């Protein structure tokens, strides 16, 4: 891919003022943010940066001049599960001579957060160099490409699109040159005021070359009048609404920032050689032998350079962080610590709660692999019933496959999951899954288990019913497609064909979280949004996800729908939740 340099058009000066009213940033000592955190000393000698950029990321490439707006051309790309999907994972590394290779390994650890594209930007001799591509991390990178990314500083990204289609030009990190230098950015989250900001910027002459909301951030940095650079990031973030955990890289600095609500996770660690590492999950730190130190706090900006080490810049603390509860239910790996809690322990307790509050006479407990396994272990331990592998998952199913002309019922599910007849035949089976979104996959799993000879099938779901779409960086269907938004629990049971069905009670979830319960976002369960979505587009997948198959892209009817400008929360909330006054 040919190298390119991006020039962001300077806009009129009025845009340097805050577009939204938000509390100002203030400097605080690192030790005040975390009393256990030792004082930081300069790690390296200083050097004078230059303002050159060499980028292989096509942020300014190949967008036809006769296409007025990239939004109408959005084409959703679907994964093989009827599940919510995390948008992406990010990594940042400072001060290691093999930064790009460590970044590559960390992205492997975060592959579950996005499988549509991957990229790394490294800094060498004050030049930002980028390699991006569509596909898995192992598809995008090899020894030759990693050798093109020398340097002691790098950021990386794995992508599953929620805003923007999966074209190469939307694969991050993005790299842009502006009048004072160059900057790379990798973003996890979703901006709910993206369209408004983009319209203002375009009215003032900005030219957008991707359909990603992340590009807005680069334009806001370019037009900011603040000095020095990290204050440009602060200035830009003051205008953003929604979810963002981002890592930036310049010629001499690595910057990590998290939105004031802390929707998406971002952690900091350190290797034995002093290299500083940021990542979406602690599992990425584990793989590259970095020690977890702490989270990046909601509203915090951390700046790392050779002169001053790690410096912290913070927004005024938000009274109520709203961290995504689905990180603990589904997204994060069980071996990660997210929002200060072990994901494994959370899921195990979810299973225990289900066994206590929705018991049923059974002979065996099985899981829908892989995300239901830990909750199933918790259920089995509490119920005193053996846990066994009743479903075997194939990890070698590609994104496309050829079905025989003689149609096979539930073809997509059968490719991925194989029942073990010896475990299921003649048994009363409890099946534990993490969530039910549209219900199509669940109905096929129940049918699969019954066809293997199960006497009874009892579904236990380790989350409350999902009744609302997520607007903060998670790919969920529109609200009308969420089965729990349209049906009662009994109606869902009849639809999926199981003998009994129970969800994790919402009140029990909050009780389990104890004093931290107010720090989590439950919008997908309650319809109450911490930051109201006014303009975000969400995917409307219809029957395209049926069987988990990919079809031709032109077969998608109405692949995107506009999110409601003024959501009627009362209509979104299930009557059960209205009664409990969540």
Automatic annotation (TrEMBL):
E.C. number(s) listed in UniProt: 2.4.2.14
BP terms from Gene Ontology: 'de novo' IMP biosynthetic process; purine nucleobase biosynthetic process
SUPFAM superfamilies: N-terminal nucleophile aminohydrolases (Ntn hydrolases), PRTase-like
Enzyme class name: transferase
Residue ranges of every copy of the Glutamine amidotransferase type-2 domain listed in the record: 88-307
This protein's UniProt keywords: Glutamine amidotransferase, Glycosyltransferase, Iron, Iron-sulfur, Metal-binding, Purine biosynthesis, Transferase
Keyword Transferase among UniProt keywords: yes
Entry's Gene Ontology molecular function annotations: amidophosphoribosyltransferase activity; iron-sulfur cluster binding
Pathway recorded for this protein: Purine metabolism; IMP biosynthesis via de novo pathway; N(1)-(5-phospho-D-ribosyl)glycinamide from 5-phospho-alpha-D-ribose 1-diphosphate: step 1/2
Reactions catalysed, as given in the entry: 5-phospho-beta-D-ribosylamine + L-glutamate + diphosphate = 5-phospho-alpha-D-ribose 1-diphosphate + L-glutamine + H2O
Co-factor(s): [4Fe-4S] cluster
Family to which the UniProt record says this protein belongs: In the C-terminal section; belongs to the purine/pyrimidine phosphoribosyltransferase family.
Protein known as: amidophosphoribosyltransferase
Organism, as annotated: Gossypium davidsonii (Davidson's cotton)
């Amino acid at each position: 891919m040919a190298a390119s340099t991006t020039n962001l058009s300077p806009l009129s000066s009025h845009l340097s003022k805050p577009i939204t009213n938000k509390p100002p940033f203030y400097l605080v000592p690192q030790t005040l943010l975390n009393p256990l955190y030792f004082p930081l000393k300069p790690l390296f000698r200083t050097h004078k940066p230059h303002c050159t950029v060499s980028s292989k990321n096509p942020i300014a490439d190949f967008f036809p001049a006769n296409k007025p707006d990239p939004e109408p051309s959005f084409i959703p790309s679907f994964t093989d599960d009827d599940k919510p999907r995390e948008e992406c994972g990010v990594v940042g590394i400072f001060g290691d001579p093999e930064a790009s290779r460590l970044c590559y390994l960390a992205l492997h650890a975060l592959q579950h957060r996005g499988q549509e594209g991957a990229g790394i930007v490294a800094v060498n001799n004050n030049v930002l160099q980028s390699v991006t591509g569509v596909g898995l991390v192992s598809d995008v990178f090899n020894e030759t490409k990693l050798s093109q990314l020398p340097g002691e500083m790098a950021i990386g990204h794995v992508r599953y699109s929620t805003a923007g289609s999966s074209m190469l030009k939307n694969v991050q990190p993005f790299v842009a040159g502006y009048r004072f230098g160059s900057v790379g950015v990798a973003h996890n989250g979703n901006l709910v005021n993206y369209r408004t900001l983009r319209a203002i910027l375009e009215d003032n002459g900005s030219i957008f070359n991707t359909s990603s909301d992340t590009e807005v951030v680069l334009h806001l940095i370019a037009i900011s009048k603040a000095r020095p650079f990290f204050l440009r990031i602060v200035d830009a973030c003051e205008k953003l609404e929604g979810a963002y955990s981002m890592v930036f890289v310049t010629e001499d600095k690595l910057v990590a920032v998290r939105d004031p609500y802390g929707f998406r996770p971002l952690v900091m660690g350190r290797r034995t050689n002093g290299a500083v590492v940021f990542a979406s999950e602690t599992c990425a730190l584990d793989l590259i032998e970095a020690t977890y130190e702490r989270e990046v706090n909601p509203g915090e900006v951390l700046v790392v350079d050779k002169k001053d080490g790690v410096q912290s810049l913070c927004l005024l603390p938000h009274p109520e962080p709203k961290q995504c509860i689905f990180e603990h239910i589904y997204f994060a790996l069980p071996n990660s610590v997210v929002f200060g809690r072990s994901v494994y322990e959370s899921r195990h307790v979810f299973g225990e709660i289900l066994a206590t509050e929705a018991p049923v006479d059974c002979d065996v407990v099985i899981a829908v692999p892989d995300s239901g396994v830990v909750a199933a272990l918790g259920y089995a331990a509490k119920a005193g019933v053996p846990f066994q592998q009743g479903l075997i998952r194939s990890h070698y199913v590609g994104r496309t496959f050829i079905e025989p002309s003689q149609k096979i019922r539930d073809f997509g599910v059968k490719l991925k999951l194989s029942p073990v007849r010896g475990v299921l035949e003649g048994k009363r089976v409890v099946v534990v899954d993490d969530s039910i979104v549209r219900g199509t996959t669940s109905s096929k799993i129940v049918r699969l288990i019954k066809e293997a000879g199960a006497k009874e099938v009892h579904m236990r779901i380790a989350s409350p019913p999902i009744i609302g779409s997520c607007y903060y960086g998670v790919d969920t269907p529109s609200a009308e497609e969420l089965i729990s938004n349209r049906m009662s629990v009994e109606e869902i049971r009849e639809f999926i064909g199981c003998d009994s069905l129970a969800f994790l009670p919402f009140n029990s979830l909050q009780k389990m979280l104890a004093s931290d319960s107010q720090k989590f976002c439950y919008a997908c369960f309650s319809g109450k949004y911490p930051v109201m979505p006014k303009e975000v587009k969400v995917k409307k997948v219809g029957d395209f996800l049926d069987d988990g198959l990919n079809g031709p892209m032109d077969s998608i009817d109405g692949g995107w729908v506009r999110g409601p400008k003024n959501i009627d929360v009362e209509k979104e909330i299930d009557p059960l939740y209205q009664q409990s006054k969540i």
